[in-house]
Amino acid sequence: MSIRILVVDDHSVVRHGLRMFLGLEPEFDVVGEATNGAEALQKARELQPDVVLMDLLMPVMDGIQATAALRQEMPDVEVIALTSVLEDASVYSALRAGAIGYLLKDTEADELCRAIKAAAAGQVQLSPKAAARLMHEVDPPPAPDALTDRETDVLRLLATGLSNKEIAYKLGIGEKTVKTHVSNILSKLGVLSRTQAALHAIRIGLVSISPIDEWAYE
Q: Which of 6, 135, 25 is nearest to 66 (CA)?
């Protein structure tokens, strides 16, 4: 099954370039384009993508607002911020809004492909440096509801970068059951993305920073 991708950017050259490049990857299906955040929401409702490549600086509705709205309305859709801006405030805002990743537009092609595949699998990938920096900036959940033992197991594995399929195999449960647990975890922690949940797991000592895979932020 191909990964359905929605490209969101206000520059037509960027959109067309991404569509052409991603179209060369047999696992990808670019199902649509949008020129601003408001249009991205409309297109996402219509097209039901797996992954959205979201520019941050756009007219009408910017990428941060669109990411937050999209994640609240369609939590199964993962968002990768794809931008030319590398400012701490933008990184933190994107992750608070629910983005699972943050890439620069000069990212190497193979790195972008890897990030899209990881996002589609729900994999959190943070380098030790990125995780250490973000932990000090992303607010912890306010008095989160207690997780069950099984939800804690899922959160621990999620934070080490495993996909739902890999978590299911590790725990001997179904992949749909894992998705349900992940949804419950996000709800209880009051966060919008697996990345935020992973940062919480690191913050409370459930996992150490060292095992987490390299993330494209660096």
A: 6
